[in-house]
Specification:
By secondary structure, the protein is mainly β. A hairpin with a 2-residue loop joins strand 9 and strand 10. It contains one helix and eleven strands, in the order βββαββββββββ. Helices cover 3% and strands 54% of the residues.
Length: 115
């Protein structure tokens, strides 16, 4: 089994920034597409951003221009830089790795944005 561990969540005021990190097993990280998802209480999980192993990125319309997904294969780590945070960004953020038939998830990290 592959370990996926997120960190960097916390409490921040509206307009502030946070940087989430996702560390995964070396054996598959560089081969995987990485996705950040989020789920707020009472709402469905939604895809926030993805980055392919070649570096191509995609973003949800709600975060485009504010969030940036990136990866550092040497560190087996993906990042989600979140700027201009809004209260509606409050959610549990989870990291997902996809490679071939593998589909691995972290436990999630809480992001809370206050007004």
């Amino acid at each position: 089994q592959v370990q996926v561990v997120e960190s960097g969540g916390g409490l921040v005021q509206a307009g502030g920034s946070l940087r989430l990190s996702c560390v995964a097993s070396r054996s598959i990280f560089s081969l995987s597409t990485v996705g950040w998802y989020r789920q707020a209480p009472g709402k469905q999980r939604e895809l926030v951003a993805t980055i392919s192993r070649g570096g191509s990125t995609n973003y949800a319309d709600s975060v485009k221009g504010r969030f940036t997904i990136s990866r550092d294969n040497a560190k087996n780590t993906a990042y989600l830089e979140m700027n201009s945070l809004k209260p509606e960004d409050t959610a549990v953020y989870s990291c997902n790795l996809k490679f071939a038939r593998r589909d691995d998830w972290g436990q999630g990290t809480q992001v809370t944005v206050s007004s």
